[in-house]
Amino acid sequence: MVETQSDDILANADTEDVSLLVVGDPYGATTHTDIVLRARALKIPTRVIHNASIMNAVGACGLQLYNFGQTVSLVFFTDSWRPDSFYDRIKENADLGMHTLVLLDIKVKEQSEENLARGRKIYEPPRYMSIPTAVSQLVEVEEKRQGGSLKPDETLAIGLSRVGGGAEERVVAGTLAELLSQSPEVFGEPLHSLVIVGKRVHHLEVEYAESFAVNRETWRDVAQRVYGCSLD
After folding, report:
1. What CATH class does 54-227 carry?
2. Within 13 A of 103's CA, how many CA atoms are on the CB side?
3. Which residues are annotated as a binding site for S-adenosyl-L-methionine?
Protein backbone atom coordinates (compact mmCIF):
# COMPACT_ATOMS: atom_id res chain seq x y z
CA MET A 1 0.00 0.00 0.00
CA VAL A 2 2.85 2.39 0.83
CA GLU A 3 4.25 1.96 -2.68
CA THR A 4 1.08 1.76 -4.75
CA GLN A 5 -1.62 3.57 -2.76
CA SER A 6 0.16 6.48 -1.13
CA ASP A 7 -2.66 8.79 -2.21
CA ASP A 8 -5.04 6.80 0.00
CA ILE A 9 -2.71 7.32 2.97
CA LEU A 10 -2.74 11.07 2.37
CA ALA A 11 -6.49 11.27 1.76
CA ASN A 12 -8.07 13.69 4.28
CA ALA A 13 -4.68 14.18 5.96
CA ASP A 14 -5.15 17.93 5.61
CA THR A 15 -7.96 17.77 8.20
CA GLU A 16 -7.18 14.56 10.14
CA ASP A 17 -4.10 13.22 11.90
CA VAL A 18 -2.58 10.31 9.96
CA SER A 19 0.28 8.17 11.29
CA LEU A 20 2.48 5.84 9.26
CA LEU A 21 4.49 3.38 11.36
CA VAL A 22 7.71 2.23 9.71
CA VAL A 23 9.99 -0.69 10.54
CA GLY A 24 13.44 0.89 10.79
CA ASP A 25 14.10 4.56 10.19
CA PRO A 26 11.44 6.36 8.11
CA TYR A 27 14.06 8.00 5.90
CA GLY A 28 15.83 4.72 5.17
CA ALA A 29 13.86 4.24 1.94
CA THR A 30 12.99 6.56 -0.94
CA THR A 31 9.38 5.32 -0.75
CA HIS A 32 8.89 7.22 2.49
CA THR A 33 10.65 10.30 1.16
CA ASP A 34 8.20 10.24 -1.73
CA ILE A 35 5.23 10.31 0.66
CA VAL A 36 6.66 13.35 2.46
CA LEU A 37 7.16 15.14 -0.87
CA ARG A 38 3.57 14.34 -1.88
CA ALA A 39 2.34 15.71 1.44
CA ARG A 40 4.32 18.91 1.00
CA ALA A 41 2.89 19.37 -2.49
CA LEU A 42 -0.59 19.15 -0.95
CA LYS A 43 0.35 21.63 1.83
CA ILE A 44 -0.07 18.90 4.44
CA PRO A 45 2.23 19.48 7.43
CA THR A 46 4.40 16.50 8.38
CA ARG A 47 6.39 15.49 11.44
CA VAL A 48 8.94 12.67 11.58
CA ILE A 49 9.82 10.74 14.73
CA HIS A 50 12.95 8.72 14.07
CA ASN A 51 13.17 5.05 14.97
CA ALA A 52 15.83 2.47 15.73
CA SER A 53 17.19 0.95 12.54
CA ILE A 54 19.57 -1.77 11.38
CA MET A 55 21.53 1.09 9.80
CA ASN A 56 22.82 2.05 13.25
CA ALA A 57 22.04 -1.07 15.31
CA VAL A 58 24.48 -3.00 13.10
CA GLY A 59 27.15 -1.56 15.41
CA ALA A 60 26.22 -4.39 17.80
CA CYS A 61 28.60 -6.64 15.85
CA GLY A 62 31.57 -4.50 16.92
CA LEU A 63 32.33 -2.83 13.61
CA GLN A 64 32.51 0.96 13.66
CA LEU A 65 29.75 2.77 11.78
CA TYR A 66 32.31 5.23 10.39
CA ASN A 67 33.89 2.37 8.46
CA PHE A 68 30.80 1.32 6.50
CA GLY A 69 30.40 2.09 2.83
CA GLN A 70 27.32 1.74 0.64
CA THR A 71 24.50 -0.46 1.89
CA VAL A 72 23.20 -3.03 -0.60
CA SER A 73 20.05 -5.13 -0.85
CA LEU A 74 20.02 -8.80 -1.81
CA VAL A 75 16.86 -10.29 -3.33
CA PHE A 76 15.78 -13.92 -3.56
CA PHE A 77 17.11 -15.54 -6.71
CA THR A 78 14.65 -17.37 -8.94
CA ASP A 79 15.17 -19.77 -11.84
CA SER A 80 14.80 -16.91 -14.31
CA TRP A 81 16.00 -13.89 -12.30
CA ARG A 82 19.40 -13.79 -10.61
CA PRO A 83 20.41 -10.11 -10.49
CA ASP A 84 24.01 -9.39 -9.53
CA SER A 85 24.32 -5.60 -9.80
CA PHE A 86 24.80 -5.44 -6.03
CA TYR A 87 28.25 -6.97 -6.54
CA ASP A 88 29.52 -3.73 -8.06
CA ARG A 89 28.64 -1.81 -4.88
CA ILE A 90 30.28 -4.44 -2.68
CA LYS A 91 33.42 -4.29 -4.83
CA GLU A 92 33.51 -0.49 -4.64
CA ASN A 93 33.34 -0.72 -0.86
CA ALA A 94 35.95 -3.49 -0.83
CA ASP A 95 38.33 -1.45 -2.99
CA LEU A 96 38.11 1.32 -0.39
CA GLY A 97 38.48 -1.13 2.49
CA MET A 98 34.97 -0.33 3.78
CA HIS A 99 32.48 -2.68 5.39
CA THR A 100 29.24 -3.49 3.54
CA LEU A 101 25.86 -3.94 5.20
CA VAL A 102 23.76 -6.36 3.14
CA LEU A 103 20.00 -6.13 3.69
CA LEU A 104 18.26 -9.43 3.02
CA ASP A 105 15.04 -9.85 1.08
CA ILE A 106 11.60 -9.99 2.73
CA LYS A 107 8.59 -11.41 0.92
CA VAL A 108 5.38 -10.53 2.76
CA LYS A 109 1.92 -10.35 1.23
CA GLU A 110 3.27 -11.36 -2.16
CA GLN A 111 1.05 -12.79 -4.90
CA SER A 112 2.02 -15.50 -7.36
CA GLU A 113 2.18 -14.45 -11.01
CA GLU A 114 -0.96 -16.47 -11.73
CA ASN A 115 -2.99 -14.96 -8.87
CA LEU A 116 -1.74 -11.51 -9.78
CA ALA A 117 -2.74 -11.98 -13.43
CA ARG A 118 -6.17 -13.30 -12.48
CA GLY A 119 -6.77 -10.56 -9.92
CA ARG A 120 -7.13 -13.05 -7.07
CA LYS A 121 -6.18 -11.63 -3.68
CA ILE A 122 -4.44 -14.82 -2.58
CA TYR A 123 -1.06 -14.29 -0.99
CA GLU A 124 1.99 -16.50 -0.71
CA PRO A 125 3.31 -17.50 2.75
CA PRO A 126 5.79 -14.96 4.15
CA ARG A 127 9.45 -15.60 3.31
CA TYR A 128 12.48 -14.08 4.99
CA MET A 129 15.94 -14.56 3.51
CA SER A 130 18.28 -16.35 5.89
CA ILE A 131 22.01 -15.80 6.23
CA PRO A 132 22.90 -19.20 4.66
CA THR A 133 20.72 -18.38 1.64
CA ALA A 134 22.30 -14.95 1.34
CA VAL A 135 25.84 -16.32 1.57
CA SER A 136 25.14 -19.04 -1.02
CA GLN A 137 23.91 -16.36 -3.44
CA LEU A 138 26.96 -14.18 -2.77
CA VAL A 139 29.28 -17.11 -3.42
CA GLU A 140 27.41 -17.94 -6.63
CA VAL A 141 27.88 -14.39 -7.89
CA GLU A 142 31.56 -14.39 -6.91
CA GLU A 143 32.06 -17.57 -8.95
CA LYS A 144 30.37 -15.84 -11.87
CA ARG A 145 32.11 -12.47 -11.57
CA GLN A 146 35.54 -13.63 -10.34
CA GLY A 147 36.15 -10.17 -8.91
CA GLY A 148 37.86 -11.42 -5.76
CA SER A 149 35.70 -9.39 -3.39
CA LEU A 150 33.81 -12.36 -1.94
CA LYS A 151 36.25 -15.25 -1.82
CA PRO A 152 34.54 -17.74 0.52
CA ASP A 153 37.65 -18.75 2.51
CA GLU A 154 39.23 -15.30 2.64
CA THR A 155 36.28 -12.99 3.24
CA LEU A 156 35.24 -12.26 6.80
CA ALA A 157 31.54 -11.68 7.39
CA ILE A 158 29.15 -11.26 10.29
CA GLY A 159 25.56 -12.46 10.38
CA LEU A 160 23.04 -10.73 12.62
CA SER A 161 19.46 -11.54 13.55
CA ARG A 162 16.82 -9.71 15.58
CA VAL A 163 19.25 -6.92 16.43
CA GLY A 164 17.93 -4.60 19.10
CA GLY A 165 19.32 -5.78 22.40
CA GLY A 166 16.65 -8.38 23.12
CA ALA A 167 17.14 -11.94 24.30
CA GLU A 168 16.71 -13.29 20.76
CA GLU A 169 19.53 -11.23 19.24
CA ARG A 170 22.21 -13.33 17.53
CA VAL A 171 25.58 -12.37 16.08
CA VAL A 172 27.70 -14.98 14.27
CA ALA A 173 31.10 -14.19 12.70
CA GLY A 174 33.36 -16.14 10.40
CA THR A 175 34.47 -16.52 6.82
CA LEU A 176 31.75 -16.78 4.20
CA ALA A 177 32.60 -20.47 3.88
CA GLU A 178 32.16 -20.97 7.64
CA LEU A 179 28.82 -19.16 7.73
CA LEU A 180 27.61 -21.22 4.79
CA SER A 181 28.46 -24.45 6.61
CA GLN A 182 26.45 -23.61 9.74
CA SER A 183 23.00 -25.05 10.36
CA PRO A 184 20.19 -22.48 9.99
CA GLU A 185 19.36 -22.73 13.71
CA VAL A 186 22.70 -21.13 14.58
CA PHE A 187 21.54 -17.78 13.22
CA GLY A 188 18.25 -17.58 15.12
CA GLU A 189 14.92 -16.34 13.91
CA PRO A 190 14.50 -13.65 11.20
CA LEU A 191 14.98 -10.87 10.42
CA HIS A 192 18.57 -11.45 9.30
CA SER A 193 21.27 -9.10 8.03
CA LEU A 194 24.82 -9.69 6.85
CA VAL A 195 27.99 -7.61 7.01
CA ILE A 196 30.97 -8.08 4.68
CA VAL A 197 34.08 -6.96 6.56
CA GLY A 198 36.32 -4.46 4.76
CA LYS A 199 40.10 -4.64 4.55
CA ARG A 200 40.62 -1.44 6.57
CA VAL A 201 39.20 -3.19 9.61
CA HIS A 202 40.72 -1.97 12.89
CA HIS A 203 42.25 -4.47 15.32
CA LEU A 204 39.71 -3.43 17.98
CA GLU A 205 36.88 -4.30 15.57
CA VAL A 206 38.44 -7.71 14.95
CA GLU A 207 38.92 -8.33 18.66
CA TYR A 208 35.36 -7.30 19.51
CA ALA A 209 33.79 -9.47 16.81
CA GLU A 210 36.05 -12.38 17.72
CA SER A 211 33.73 -13.27 20.60
CA PHE A 212 31.04 -14.09 18.00
CA ALA A 213 33.33 -16.17 15.77
CA VAL A 214 32.48 -19.70 14.68
CA ASN A 215 36.18 -20.46 15.04
CA ARG A 216 38.34 -17.87 16.79
CA GLU A 217 41.61 -19.22 15.39
CA THR A 218 40.35 -19.01 11.80
CA TRP A 219 38.90 -15.55 12.44
CA ARG A 220 42.23 -14.23 13.73
CA ASP A 221 44.26 -16.01 11.06
CA VAL A 222 42.27 -14.55 8.16
CA ALA A 223 42.23 -11.11 9.81
CA GLN A 224 46.02 -11.12 10.02
CA ARG A 225 46.99 -13.06 6.89
CA VAL A 226 44.43 -11.70 4.40
CA TYR A 227 43.34 -8.39 5.95
CA GLY A 228 46.77 -7.40 7.26
CA CYS A 229 45.38 -6.65 10.69
CA SER A 230 47.95 -6.54 13.48
CA LEU A 231 46.76 -8.48 16.54
CA ASP A 232 48.49 -9.18 19.85
Report:
1. alpha beta
2. 14
3. 25, 28, 53-54, 104, 163, 192
